[in-house]
Amino acid sequence: MKSNKEILKEHSLKFSKQRDLLLTIFNENKRPLTAEDVYNMLDSSMDLSTVYRIINVFTEAEILLKLSMQNESKALYLLNENRHVHHLVCLSCHQVKTIEGCPIHHYEHELKKQTDYDIVSHNLEIFGYCPECKEK
To answer: Three-state DSSP class for 75?
Structure first.
């Protein structure tokens, strides 16, 4: 596993204690987090606007993936594992389950034939309720 310094260097970002701390939080929490979740985990004096700024930098550099929740104003962020996956997201507890394999590749080829677009990427997030939340 790469160190935080290596990850930042790989993305041409400067190392700072604050960026290191946020990367550590996302590495240790294998679930999606809001900026407020991250802020509440901090034992330092970093303010919420700094957390948002760093998260935006990480998202633009594709270190983090942004999951936009339906009907909610807060986005969830997840460490990018640099592999092609899709996600099932629980609308109640925000649990995220990774979907291995891609059901869209075939559709991309058909869409390219129909539209003559050069498709370079796609993102798929499926929203619903996990088995635990369905029982409640």
So the answer is: strand
Q: What is the dihedral of CA 60, 61, 67, 71, to 10 degrees?
A: -10
60 and 124, same domain (yes or no) = no
Share of the chain above pLDDT 90, in %: 46
The pTM for the full model equals 0.72
Q: What is the CATH number of the domain that holds 126?
A: 3.30.1490.190
Q: pLDDT tens digit string along 68-101?
A: 766 667 888 988 877 777 888 888 887 888 887 7
Cα diameter, the chain: 54
Token pair, residue 60, equals 């633009």
Domain that holds residue 136: 83-136
